[in-house]
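Structure ticket #2291
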Amino acid sequence: MQSIYAMHQNDSDNLEKEEKFLFNSIENIRDLYLIMLSALVEIRNSEEKFIEKSSQKHLATPEERNPNKKFINNQVLHLLSESNALSIAMEDCKITNWQNNDDYILLLLEEVKKSELYQKYMHNKVNNFEEDREFIADLFTEVIAPNDKLYEYLEDHKLTWIDDIPVVNTLINKQLRVISPQGKDAFYVPKLYKDSDDKDFVRDLFRKTVLNDVELAKEFIDKTPNWDTERIAELDAIILKMAICEFLKFPSIPVKVTINEYLEIAKEYSTPKSSIFINGILDNLVKDYQASNKLIKTGRGLM
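Resolution: structure written out below.
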């Protein structure tokens, strides 16, 4: 949707170029995921260096000589730092952001140590896996992910990440809450696409919506007698075209799935009343398509 909208805004007809940008944007989501996840490891490493340096001071205090290492001994952080999957993905994608911007890690570490979560966690020196896991998940969700400075850095680094940040953070939170102590392979880096068909769907939906723009627009313009093309928000028109494209050109996608997905997109990205407007149009179209046998879906339960 965003790529098609960008094409309209830029008045571009270079399908190959825009498709390439679409897939690059998807690839960049993995980089964002790795950057956010590796921040946890780098925060822990930064604290370990600080503790070691403090203990070696000539006039180190008793507390500095015998520090509470519960945070740097956190078992979940150790699993992440030792994860083969994570280290391979970091190397393959050449993720070196925190090596070049360690000031952000120091800033995040400061925020971590000021938090009530950290103070409560560090109340004793004993590590327990369940407590370690809950603490890291909460810390990521409540302290690291919402950090304004981190958000500004990510926004400046890559503008397309603005809409990806909540999705990536939600995924990481879910992973952290179910991670188990199974050694170096306890953590996995999810694939961008479920399978090759998943990636093909991205390409096909993009191409078929763009190449059939006029044809798809005609499908709903007649169903909106009180609205001319100038009065329908451009984003709403794109959402309708994509949904109709799925109705007519993707026989394996259930009608209800299509409607629900695009209503959620409308609620997230368009005007407050858009989802009601779009729902009405799509419902009427489905009835007409069913009556004229234009809606052909294959498989059980696809209507």
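Closing remark: The mean pLDDT is 90.
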